Structure prediction request, 176 residues.
Amino acid sequence: MKKYFVPIWAVIFLLVSCGQGTGDQKTHNENPKAAQADTSETTVPGADKLAFSDTLKLSANENMKFDNELFRVKSGKKLRLVFYNTSKKIGAAMSHNVVILNKGTDIADFAEVARTAKNEQYVPSSVSTLVVAHTNMVAAGDKAEIEFTIPQAGVYNFICSYPGHWGTMQGKIVAE
Ligand SMILES: [Cu+2]
Prediction:
């Protein structure tokens, strides 16, 4: 009798231990995600000194830099973006756009996917969930205007997704 009971307890103990082990591992696997969410930027130095913008005015030229790289906005509010391509060099290589990426999106990863999406103006629908809003490609001398809303507070990167431009053409929107 006793001989029989001991193994059963041992088995139950083992099962419980295994169960806890699995549980621990699950928690452990979720930790990196939680940590990532926790470390995602909530603001950027200097943003608190800016006035809130309703209209984000941006321009870029052949120097491949946005003239403004930091905006502060209110989340949930309708915003307008007006983008001017002031390049004096004409040609497709000086086309620019503005793509506002969801918070936490890796710019390099997005750009790598966007690079090959010429027929979608370098904003591929396959990664549309990473995009908050975007203009079309704007040729030298042209402008684009869009309306959008940033639903949640956080820091949102914006880039030009024309191949090779994102390295220098990027900025941040801090939504509060
Ligand atoms: Cu560009």
